[in-house]
Amino acid sequence: MVARYTDGVVGRDFLNWSRTHVFWRGALLLFAATIAIAVFARGRASPAPPTRVAIRVMCADAATCSLVERVSLDVWSEEQGPGLPLDVVVTRDGLAELAAAGIHWDVLVADIDAVARAEHARLAQPVAARPADWFAEYRDYTAISGHLRELAELAPDRASMHPIGATLEGRPIWALRIGGATARTPMLVNGTQHAREWIASMVTTCVADRLVRDYDRDPKVRAFVDSTALWVVPVVNPDGYQYSWSSDRYWRKNRRDRFGVDLNRNFSVAWGGAGSSRSERSQTYRGAYAFSEPETAALRDLALRERITAHVDFHSYGQLVLYPWGHSNTAAPDRAKLAAIGDRMASAIFAQHGARYALQTGFDLYAASGIMTDWMYGAAGALSYTIELRPKGGAGFVLPPSEIRPTCDEGLAAVLALRGSIGN
Ligand code: 0X9
Ligand code: ZN
User: Fold this and answer.
1) What is the pLDDT of residues 377-416, one digit of tens each?
2) From the CB of 368, is ligand 1 less than 6 Å away?
């Protein structure tokens, strides 16, 4: 009927209305379609990630071990081989595959990402809510660097801070040199070649803290500091460490081209051998060539320049004291001496809180080539140890912060026992 009045103004109005209506209807449809596509695309691009479970398998034979490793997303354990417990991370689908193969497991961490989220939330608390004791909580690279600077300012006659190199992302690799005017015997202690092993940064920083602060009240500390030029590098891998704080709690390597290099496969003694990978995606990727990474080159230059004679490379986890060789089952020329000193270190650790750290060669654990301890011993001539800190299993890399102090006692005891075993 309206058409009857379509001549003139009414008709044009209707036409205008009609065009406007069509336009808005189109726009509305377009908007709805865009939303639908966005929702759909979002759903497809990021489906809920599968739950990742850390489990321990007693793999009875080589076939079982290799099936478990094939199904796993990541291998966490130190000890590898038939008859040994193997800690791996799997999805729930992976668990179904293991169950179908008749393999039994114990759950170490039911949801490793939930554990990391809980830790992240705890660390995000306002400063006021944090414990007063600096070692009652984990600290990031900036806080650790600040703490080392504080120690240097506290005792400038016995402690000084030095950059020993810079990372690919431009962060300084900091060392604290501790030693009085008469200090001679050069030692090196470092932590966190592997980013996710946060307890190693805390223990090395805490060892430095104890040596600086307890100088006047602990005669053992005073004797150590008066006779030793100790270089402490708590965070060898600052880029990886920060990445493990900001983005991926379980990141291990440095941040070379985002895939990363395993620094503890990048040293030149036996570089490229068994227990290291040529694949960039691997957790044990050894890099393009020995010392291709600024972090390993910095440690090499420091060790050679200072003629380091004794060394501890702190890692986690497993509670182990490991000595060379790591890449070969041939006995190191100083095997008996290395084992005797290692035994004293393990006993000194036990005397702190009754924690058992097993002593063995790195190779007896599993073959690993291009590692720092083999280079420090084989090329730099130092008595060198890898210490795998707490825990023995259980929590894995996300260790409760209440364990920082006791683990620090164990780290310090090991360093003092090593020093006490080597003369001047
Ligand atoms: O694999 C490593 O680099 C060290 N373990 S960790 O889980 N912290 O990554 C241990 C190296 C010790 N040496 C040998 N197993 N040969
Ligand atoms: Zn490690």
Assistant:
1) 999 999 999 999 999 988 899 999 999 999 999 999 999 9
2) yes
CA of 390 to the centre of ligand 2 (A): 12
Ligand 1, from 386, 387, 388, 397: best to mutate by most atoms within 8 Å of Cβ? 386
**Residue 175: helix, strand or coil by DSSP?**
strand
Q: For residue 161, report the distance from its CA to the centre of ligand 1, in Å.
A: 28
Mean pLDDT to the nearest integer, 25-50:
56
Cα(236)–Cα(171) distance, rounded to whole angstroms?
11
The model carries a pTM of: 0.88
pLDDT at 181: 86
Q: For residue 243, what is the enclosing H or E element?
A: helix 238-246
8 A C-beta contact, residue 284 and residue 253: no
Say which of 293, 388, 403, 410 is annotated catalytic: 388
- 290 Cβ partners below 8 Å, 6+ apart? 266, 267, 268, 271, 272, 370
In angstroms, what CA-CA distances link 279 with 114, 257, 274, 285, 286? 29, 13, 13, 6, 8
What is the position in ligand 1's atom list of the atom closest to the CA of 315?
8
Is pLDDT above 70 for 211? yes
Q: How far is the CA of 412 from the centre of ligand 1 (A)?
A: 21
Provide the percentage of residues in the chain whose pLDDT is more than 90.
78
pLDDT at 132: 83
Q: Which domains, ranges and CATH numbers included, belong to the chain? A: 25-110 (3.30.70.340), 129-421 (3.40.630.10)
d(CA 118, CA 416): 35
Query: What pLDDT does 48 receive?
Result: 78
The yes-or-no verdict on residue 363 having pLDDT over 90 is: yes
Parallel/antiparallel/unpaired status of strands 185-191 and 228-233: parallel
Closest residue to atom 5 of ligand 1, CA basis: 78
365 lines ligand 1 (CB under 6 A): yes
Active-site residue, 388 included: yes
How close are the terminal C-alpha atoms of the chain, in Å? Answer: 111
Question: 3-state DSSP call for residue 297?
Answer: helix
Residue 169: the pLDDT is 98
**Tokens describing residue 239:** 């880029």
Rounded to the nearest angstrom, the distance between the alpha carbon of 128 and the centre of ligand 2 is 32
Does ligand 1 come within 6 angstroms of the Cβ of 326?
A: yes
For 13, the 3-state DSSP assignment is: helix
Q: Which ligand is nearest to the CA of 318?
A: 1
Is 362 near ligand 1, meaning CB less than 6 Å away?
yes
> Which ligand does the CA of 76 lie closest to?
1
